[in-house]
Amino acid sequence: MSASFEIPDAAKELVPAEKLAKIVSNFADIDRDGDGRVTLDEYLDHMLAEHRARLLHKFQYLDTDGDGTIAFEEFLTATESSYAVLKKFRECDLDGDGLLDYEEALRAAEILDLPYSSDDIKAALERRADLDRDGKVTYDEYFGLIVRYGFQ
């Protein structure tokens, strides 16, 4: 192992060579000026660069439309999961009565792009979603189905 700093003999003896090589490489990456010592500025620059990459990834996740900004609704959807579910429920509630009949529930399944046939979805709705068997799916029943099956 060649480095611009001295690696203690104890480290060479006690740390497996592969692991030590990785540690040396990481230290050398942080020690930008190669003097064998990491200054506060070098350490902060390195750590902030790693943190910046994670934050950039999170920003890109929140920016669902990819326009380079996070609109309030994108932020709201990411921080309040029930908002997105309720919004989809309302979009499918064509008559605005606060309930989904089977036709509207099937439409919801299509919007959610579920990989099931209409017959499978109707059977699941009858058995699992319409708990009170009134032919309509309430928001609570819909939300329960979403939570159970993870469709959002």
Automatic annotation (TrEMBL):
<dbReference type="Pfam" id="PF13499">
    <property type="entry name" value="EF-hand_7"/>
</dbReference>
<feature type="domain" description="EF-hand">
    <location>
        <begin position="59"/>
        <end position="85"/>
    </location>
</feature>
<feature type="domain" description="EF-hand">
    <location>
        <begin position="18"/>
        <end position="53"/>
    </location>
</feature>
<dbReference type="InterPro" id="IPR011992">
    <property type="entry name" value="EF-hand-dom_pair"/>
</dbReference>
<feature type="domain" description="EF-hand">
    <location>
        <begin position="116"/>
        <end position="152"/>
    </location>
</feature>
<protein>
    <submittedName>
        <fullName>Ca2+-binding protein (EF-Hand superfamily)</fullName>
    </submittedName>
</protein>
<feature type="domain" description="EF-hand">
    <location>
        <begin position="89"/>
        <end position="115"/>
    </location>
</feature>
<dbReference type="GO" id="GO:0005509">
    <property type="term" value="F:calcium ion binding"/>
</dbReference>
<dbReference type="InterPro" id="IPR018247">
    <property type="entry name" value="EF_Hand_1_Ca_BS"/>
</dbReference>
<dbReference type="InterPro" id="IPR002048">
    <property type="entry name" value="EF_hand_dom"/>
</dbReference>
